[in-house]
Please model this.
Amino acid sequence: MASLRVTVWNEYRHEKESPRIAQVYPQGIHGAIAEGLREHGLSVRTATLDEPEHGLTQQVLDETDVLTWWGHMAHGDVSDEIVDRVHKRVLEGMGLIVLHSGHFAKIFKRLMGTTCNLKWREIGEHERVWVVNPAHPIAEGLSDHFVIPETEMYGEPFGIPEPDSLVFVSWYQGGEVFRGGCTYYRGQGKVFYFSPGHESYPIYYQPEIRQVIYNAVRWAAPTHGPAIEVDNRKEPLEPVAVREL
Ligand code: ZN
Model:
């Protein structure tokens, strides 16, 4: 698995603008996510919004097997050209892990085709993340649930298409529930949405969260097949007696 090439993308604005959030993530949210993946032996690079081409040049994407995406306050600053580029790579087979407020990222909304809207509340309540598909590779190594001590509530109804697999459902102290771990297939690519990760809380240091993101990266790794070619196949594979219609 060491040959898997991961790019961790982060908008990286909250950490620069708020000393309180910079204290939680001194190396940026991308730094914490990358550290968690490196602990598991993966080869990781990071990219952020304010780099040229948002750090997602064609070469970087061509050399990326799985891309993780965290964004929140600057979804509108992501250029449509880069979104097109990421979208094309996903359809070609690059895995995409969309985290937390990335539910409103241009790339996620395009891949889902729905509002991706949800309810939210930030009062530092706790969250129980329940494994609802223990057979799924993204649940590997986890017990039936784990607790995030302080979190932002994300509540249903979540404006997403029915997931191909629902791996996690979150319950919040305030009573809401949320489909917080959802998988999708898009073209030759695999997409996983995972809801925990509000910038004010040290969620990306938590071992269970790091385990889920690592599992998700492995699950979303490309299945190396031939590029899909769709055309009007005039010649049949077996001989067929052609009748005049
Ligand atoms: Zn948030």
